[in-house]
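Annual report, structural modelling task.

Input specification for the magnesium ion complex:
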Amino acid sequence: MIRLERLSAYLVELPLVHPFRTSFGEEKVRRALLISLEGEGKVGWGECVAGAGPWYSYETVDTALQVIRDFFLPLLRGKPIAHPTELGELLSPIRGHPMAKAALEAALWDLYLRLEGVPLWQALGGVREEVPAGVSIGIQRDLPALLDRVASFVEQGYQRVKLKVKPGWDIQVLEAVRERFPNLPISVDANCAYDLKDTEHLKAFDRFGLMMIEQPLRYDDLLGHAKLAGALTTPICLDESISSPHRAWEALELESCRIINVKQGRVGGISAALEIHKLAQARGVPLWCGGMLETGVGRALNVALATLPGFTLPHDISATSRYYREDIAEPAFRLTPRGTIPVPEGPGLGVEVVPERLLAAQVASWSFRL
Ligand code: OSB
Ligand code: MG
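The model returned the following structure:
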């Protein structure tokens, strides 16, 4: 039994090495909320993947902090926990807020496994010690800048590139990149920038031999995606639309997608991600692990998840240096010459938060007795 003693929250800001532009905006600095749980003499860490504002999802770092403080804490107080999978039941009265729940669940798994001395990837049933790395490339100033960027990542050894697209930055982009890199595995991510009325336009993507088109339509439009899927040969992958295991089930039943991008934060945590893994495996639907420009804490969790057998496509898991000059956690993630990212070896998440770096990146912090 773990008696939890303290929950702390740290709002940090890390400047990105390169600004990241998508169809919904540009990020120059990653604002992240880190959660730590103390108990039985150890500390576990979790990262909340909510953004600074409600653009990718309705959650923000501030809404996450609020629900954790006002609604999660009272449910946790005075309740010893035998295993992290008990958290779902404890938090079941709370509707929504998957990213806030996921951050807490991550910290609990990390604490639990540090006490047990077991690495997360092993506890989850991982089957590989390194995962294939892809890289997500934001919308650039112009085509030459994009081509340079793609060339640099291909040279580094990434196994596929994902290009962010939107109306006005799509067909010409694909023509240019495909011409220069005829055999490169390429996917595109629209972050909801198109409409079902754009079906004819989207059909033009089919000739570029893309691995998939990610989230072309609205975040809540499973039916629209099912209709679009019937018109395209390029497989549809859903990201924003898969906000829970139940939504994954609906999407699979409706045939809204042939591939799922799993982000444990978006779906409500590790247990929810494992449920989706089970659903997808039963139907032979391939998964891959998405990213949210996480710090090393969140990335460690993504790497562990990506070792599961159903995660078969290259992930949005890139080297630390692609995101940050200096991360708050150690060791940094490095790309191998094989284009993979190795799983950290230590217990739990397998990375350590460096106190001086946390302090340097910190904007505010809170601490609550449990
Ligand atoms: O849509 O996959 C996305 C980053 C922030 C928010 C949404 C997305 C992304 C990425 C980056 O594509 C993935 C990464 O962390 O490398
Ligand atoms: Mg996406």
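The longest helix spans residues 98-116.
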